[in-house]
Specification:
Elements lengths: L1 H25 L7 E5 L2 H11 L3 E5 L14 H9 L2 E4 L6 H8 L5 E4 L9 H18 L4 H29 L5 E5 L3 H6 L3 E6 L7 H14 L3 E5 L8 H7 L2 E5 L12 H15 L3
Parallel strand pairs: 1-2, 1-3, 3-4, 5-6, 5-7, 7-8
Length: 280
């Protein structure tokens, strides 16, 4: 009797274990995240915000570096070979060669064409729509989640712009004359400054160009010379000294400065640096 009871118990346990195994096998496994490769942190940070848990993002160019001087590494080729979606701005000289080297027939390549400086809120908002469309096309199953995340992020952009515009207005920067690196022009104009003249990378600053910038700066009473971190953080230092103006370096990419991994932290840092340079 005892042996019969023991056998019955063992069979019951085995039946329960089998049932658990079968039921777990029937449960739908979550889809792996979409493998997205982006050229810059401007694109990468947007994909992360809109894609959320449904994406895994690889950003190729370090945010403090100049994309124009980026050198392809073996790891970059492998990342693209493993990717499903590749996002680029369209001006990256290395992108086509990298995509060709990866030999990935399943890779979807999308150029996110948005004119203007992406640090400026109106431009950032336009970029959200473009990235949303790209993600939704490649992964339609999560389109609703992408849309929800995009709408929430656009609200953050709107609130951030309002807060920073009020801060800039209170500091009285509207119309303050400045010289700036050409890659910062759109953002600096959004902030309300009067851009008297712009200049390129350090290698483009010939003695004649510098002389003309100094003359324009002095004539216009320029108060601030603004450099771009990624293209030359000290390009305008000597020009500022000649004019007798303050100097500051801003970043065009999230993550360029420590603690600025998101767009809103990056733009807040830029505004903070501008006001500090002016003694505001």
């Amino acid at each position: 009797m005892k042996a019969s009871h023991r056998i019955h118990t063992i069979l019951l346990i085995l039946s329960l274990v089998a049932l658990l195994v079968l039921s777990s096998g029937c449960q739908a496994k979550p889809a792996p995240p979409l493998q997205v490769v982006t050229t810059t942190s401007l694109l990468g940070s947007l994909v992360e915000r809109i894609g959320g848990e449904h994406v895994s993002v690889t950003i190729l160019v370090p945010p403090g570096s100049c994309p124009g001087h980026f050198d392809i590494k073996p790891g970059d080729v492998q990342a693209v070979a493993d990717g499903k979606l590749f996002l680029k701005h369209g001006w990256e000289g290395f992108a086509d060669k990298l995509i060709e080297s990866a030999k990935n027939p399943d890779l979807k390549v999308v150029t996110i064409e948005v004119k203007g400086n992406w640090m400026a809120p109106p431009v950032q908002s336009q970029a959200v729509d473009k990235v949303l469309a790209a993600l939704s096309e490649v992964d339609p199953a999560h389109k609703d989640d992408f849309q929800k995340n995009a709408e929430a992020y656009k609200k953050i952009i709107e609130d951030t712009e309002k807060k920073l515009k009020e801060k800039l207005a209170a500091a009285g920067v509207e119309g303050v004359p400045v010289l700036c690196g050409k890659y910062q022009t759109g953002f600096v104009k959004w902030a309300g400054f009067n851009v008297v003249a712009t200049y390129g990378r350090p290698e483009e600053l010939t003695p004649q160009v510098v002389k003309e910038l100094v003359e324009k700066g002095k004539a216009a009473g320029v108060k601030l010379v603004i450099d771009n971190l990624q293209s030359g953080p000290d390009a305008g230092v000597e020009i500022a000294k000649e004019i007798g103006a303050a100097h500051v370096t801003l970043s065009n990419f999230p993550g360029g400065f420590e603690g600025t991994e998101t767009w809103e932290k990056a733009i807040e840092k830029n505004v903070e640096l501008l006001l500090e340079a002016l003694g505001k």
